[in-house]
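User: ferric-chelate reductase (NADH). Structure?
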Amino acid sequence: MGDQEILKRSPSQVKYDMILYAIRLVVLVVLLGWIFIWIMMPTSTFRQTWLPHLRAKTTTSTYFGSQGTTLLIYTFPVLFIASLGCIYLHIVKKANDSNMDRNDDKGGKETIWKRPFIVKGPLGIVSGTEVAMLLMFIGLLLWSFASYLHNFFALITQKSAAQFGVKLWELKLEDAGLILGLVGNICLAFLFFPVSRASPVLPLLGLTSESCIKYHIWLGHLVLTFFTAHGVSYIIFWAATNQISQMVKWEKIGISNVAGEISLVCGLILWIATIPGIRRKFFELFFYAHYLYIFFMLFFIFHVGISYASIMLPGFYIFMVDRFLRFLQSRTHVHLVSARVLPCDTIELNFSKTLELSYTPTSVMFINIRSISKLQWHPFTITSSSKLEPEKLSVVIKSEGTWSKKLYQMLSTPTIDHIDVSVEGPYGPASTNYLRHDSLVMVSGGSGITPFISIIRDLIYLSTTFKYKTPKILLICAFKNTSSLSMLDLILPISGTPFEISNLELQIEAYITRDKEFKSNTLINLQTKWFKPNPNDAPIYAILGPNNWLWFGAIISSSFIIFLILIGIITRYYIFPKDHNTNGIFSYSLKALINMLVMCVSIAIVASVGVLWNKKLSAKKGNNQVQHLEGLSPTVSPSSVVYYNNNGGNHNVELESLPSQLIAQATNVHYGERPDLRKILFEIKGSSVGVFASGPKKMRQEVAAICSTGLTENLHFESISFSW
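Assistant: Predicted structure:
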């Protein structure tokens, strides 16, 4: 950043930047230290010198014992980074809300690491940042495996095997099984980060939980591959050495074999349910089998003991905080105001929300409808803008699976006037500064148009309220049938919020791939259904209030401190005396159970206090009252507002408002063809062009391949999708 750019920035911007840089520096130092520990962990220096020295300092403690070592080395650094990350993201959110950074990143230089590095592969589209992280993780696994193998096998000789009464290969097999378990635990330590939806760790890296689901899947494969090989190795070893009775032993101290076997069986059942054929045909089996993770983790901790489990604890701890907050939010039934039913088997649900709830474009929300399934939760893209529509939140659902088809049939019933709905979220990127680009190109296929609706609505707000010069928008959408053109009606909100789109430079190119021409007999009108309010329903609200990142960080740090205090007291006055009396040593499994219970209680107490406190503050402001949005007149007509310009051939459709006319005039429909994406993208002018793709995998890969070529330095690609 040059001196002139610094002078242009306000004192508050400079102050925020200095705080952010300081947090980044501290996080970097702690992170490098944590990575260094992981690198050193397999070495003989760490295991024979450093770790015994640390344990000698902590084992004599009457409050934590040897568990204090692993909590200090492995757990504390990550939770400290997460807490600092929450402060960092809070500052970034406040800066975005005040639009302080709208022109700071013009040109998009920071997106170099976000460019597609790998377009086609087992992990789908992968950016430079993700490739760097993957290489470091793979390097850690290979280094750990090789180091453990070298150090363990160096101690195995014919003499040592004879001392144990086994053959040389049998002793090597036992150690190999142990090494596989140790490497599997490294994968387990990272397994829960991608599925912690509200975690600050992923946003710090510019990632979201939705985009990282693929890593959770592959980490799950690695975990169960290593743990299965670990278990099979020990079973073969026991069978070869006539110790098969070891399989049914649950030792009071040390490793519990039965607990490990139960954990592995739960993991294998869960793993089998993830096979693509089973997942597609029996989704409910796949969904319910995932709840076995509770028993998988519980018996894993019983198997290895709480001290060693502290290695993988940070990711699981953050996941438990996130999971309990989701549980608290899901207990509330939210107010479903209306639904728009489209002829293309698609529906838009419109919910009431509090004014203080804000979210970024492309955010998602998880929905549960108990009348369809009590346990199933499904994610859907939010199409509304929290700025343009401060009292309403909308999602679009395409009727494709069993759950969504039942919902579509339910809403198609004329007599229905109320549906009990619970939600979790919204969840989305920490910041989305689309104004840094000169132009935005949005490429969608089918229902992939939904995240772009939220972006367009957000830009409508900026151009209407602040008169910002927004980027030129080119929306390229491909549909199978003419009826799917009704999806374009969703660009305009249903609420009566005043807005102006004449300042928005919007061009829509719609491609109908299966219909060769406009079919006048095709129904393209949508219907709006209003629901009666229920006194027990509440608007969707920010469960941790407007300062949600600060509260999340406070919950992580406070609950962990309370856990340390409680477990220290229990250890000092209950576990330690039993450990040092004449009757023997305190059971490892019971100690693990006590630790898990105290951990859960600490998280539950602190999280509940945070939620109740924010709910009380929200009630004082009157934010929890259901907004009667049904009294507002819809902005759009119940019939379609799209004006079809079929390559010069006009097909007039009813238009009732100026915004509808402007959207219609900006729309060109091409029948019987697909978009030539390479030609379109190469013709886009501008120093910085944001290119977003959402929809089928092949389409996203095609767009990513075009943007990753050296011929298009001005194109900055981003994939928006749940699948990979």
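Residues 588-620 form the longest helix (33 residues). Confidence is low (pLDDT under 50) at residues 1-7, 100-105, 629-644, 648-656.
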